[in-house]
């Protein structure tokens, strides 16, 4: 990745073949179908950034927004997981759910990801704010020591903390999701106590003034070194959020980037309208085209009994075929790789190879029959 002449550092994190996250010291945004892209160039104009990429030889601008309007984008991989989970719920439900009910289930899955991120931020801020509680409790002792009367509460005034808790969309998200109803106060206290014993915290409170980098680093330390490695904390999260494992890696990345520019995320749009539309379209297409997709899949099963194949494998292959036929901007290679990975992670040990073989055969047939109508970026 290039470095801009004004010394703003740009980094690139490639999650998989289909998406990448471009990160600056100011914000993060996602770029899907990264496999289409070649060279890239970034230019800053005041508080606006233009990201220009070369799409197979043709230059295209993919972003120009004010920094304060940018928000994180949940990756398409996570969107696919939510759609897959929704389809599985529909297939195993004893009730015959209609389209609106299906959409509601999907939106609930996506909403849980937003709620989880809000809770992670809330827990982090409560840990920092516990310094004031600790000072108050120690000062209220019957016979407080000199140390009890002079608890350092510097972190409670941390600039990152106040940028987060005063940001309007976060305030509204807290009202909506009510993370205070889930908070484990004893766990907050335990993690705070671990913080106060750490060399990083001691160095932080003994540094005079408020250096922006140090203000951010102590929050990163709490999240990455005290919260995530803590088994009690993870058990607490899993108690309320059963899909923690699905979202953990992505939310970890979003949190670290959020701390680079606290207050920069719009908590009302963590998914983003484009990704939400992709999720809805994929779900509806997988439902509407189920019979047709099955007609394409079943001849490829050879000696396999369709009734004995893992339900999740059938759902994954159906989603893959839908992307082949009805999502023209997603390269077929991206689709195949994505669903191989989902099969490996969520289905049986043999599912990755099985799904790969079936989707690859269907892809070859569709090419031979000229039924694929993908966007040709060379002509754009």
Quick rundown:
55% of the residues lie in helices and 11% in strands. It is mostly helical and 380 residues long.
Q: How would you describe the overall organization of this protein?
A:
This protein is mainly α and 380 residues long. 55% of the residues lie in helices and 11% in strands. It is built from 14 helices and six strands. The chain has helices spanning 76-92, 99-139, 159-165, 168-177, 185-196, 199-205, 212-227, 231-240, 244-260, 273-288, 290-297, 311-326, 332-346, 351-368, and strands at 11-16, 19-23, 28-32, 37-45, 48-55, 58-66. The strands form two sheets. The protein has a three-stranded antiparallel sheet with strand order 1-2-3, covered by helices on one side. A three-stranded antiparallel sheet has the order 4-5-6, with no helix packed on it. Strand 2 (19-23) and strand 3 form a beta hairpin. 33% of the residues are buried.
Keywords:
single chain; 380 residues; mainly alpha; three-stranded antiparallel sheet; 14 helices; 6 strands; 55% helix; 11% strand; disordered N terminus
Shape: elongated
What radius of gyration results from the CA coordinates? Answer: 24 Å
DSSP strand content: 5-15%
Q: Going across the major beta sheet, what is the strand order?
A: 1-2-3
Work out the oligomeric state of the chains in this entry: single chain
